[in-house]
Amino acid sequence: MTTIEQFNEHVMGSYGRYDLVLEKGEGRTATDEDGKQYTDFGSGIGTNSLGYCNDKWVEAVCAQAHSIQHTSNYYYTKVQADFAKTLCEATGYDKMFFGNSGAEANECAIKIARKYSFDKYGADAERNIIVTLENSFHGRTMGTLSATGQDVFHNYFFPFLPGFVNAKANDIDDLKNVLAQNKGKVCAVMFEFVQGEGGVVPLTKEFVNAIFEECAKDDILTIADEVQTGVGRTGTLLTCEQYGVKPDITTLAKGLAGGIPIGVCLADKKCSGVLTPGTHGSTFGGNPIACAGGNAVLATVLEDGFTKSIREKGEYFRKKLAEIPEVEGVDGLGLMIGVRLKSKKAGDIAKACLEKGLLILTAKTKLRFLPPLNISYEEIDRGMAILAEILK
Ligand SMILES: *Cc1c(COP(=O)(O)O)cnc(C)c1O
Fold first, then answer.
1. Which residue range is the domain that position 105 belongs to?
2. Which among 68, 89, 70, 104 is positioned nearest to 254, based on CA atoms?
């Protein structure tokens, strides 16, 4: 029996997978069971931010596994305290909460927003609506699925959680209308600066400014879901820096611990005290091994010049892509890249790339690249040569 047959016999079929069994990785190259190598433009889904088995990361993770792997949240560890200090100081947030995934980070944000309003305005005010954007993606738990603004996700699992209302992304009038229709009932607006799963769609600066202006008028919290865009991915530690705004809450996950499950919810002073003892928790949240991996990632991303190198590599990708006739246009920021094709189907291209030794992602009708943040120019050239050949 092959690995794939064995796997499918025992694992639920909730994913469409490629016929590829990966065995190991080094740098930005993965190797399958037969020894075939693949250049990686996907990093999992933006998760292996330092590539495969980065030396410093492996050392930090192994050292932590040798010292203490879990303590429960009844006790403290230094590795968690160090991680939280580094992240809060680097991002300018007051405090953070530890979870294990993007969805969990967003659940925490949703709970903070609702309790912030509950505490301040009382239960009778029913000030609990969270406005999210059409075409957004916030996760797969019942709460975050309800928050997600795509009808395709709102099926089968009825009833969904009430209290989420959608506004059109990049449509200021629609945002204002939705807020006016729900006046006095909205506790937060939640958004991705660049919609990832929605097809690498950046919000305009004007629209983001409008969110912040409207929210400021009515004490509505702003929640940035930077689960995919955060931790250097778009060329700054947080993407909000490029928009010149500071959300009340920011969530991070994917690339934060270099491939180990983690999710954090960062909160500003205004709402960092909302979660009091007993109001929220997660058994695995703040796992010391994850924090050790996170410390290695943060140490790298915060090195002088590292985020600048991400922006430069992003530019290099764009220049290379512009030379391919089949490429209609390129969207995204930094090393979060969506490629519009003229006539070819993204799914077919991703499959063909895999055949030729290149791992890429798709998002809606686009090709999507989320390469490891420390990818080299040589590796970009290697992958782009494969892609250019296939798109000929
Ligand atoms: C991936 C993603 C999530 C969900 O993260 P999980 O770790 O799969 O729960 C939420 N928001 C955004 C923007 C994402 O890209």
1. 68-301
2. 104
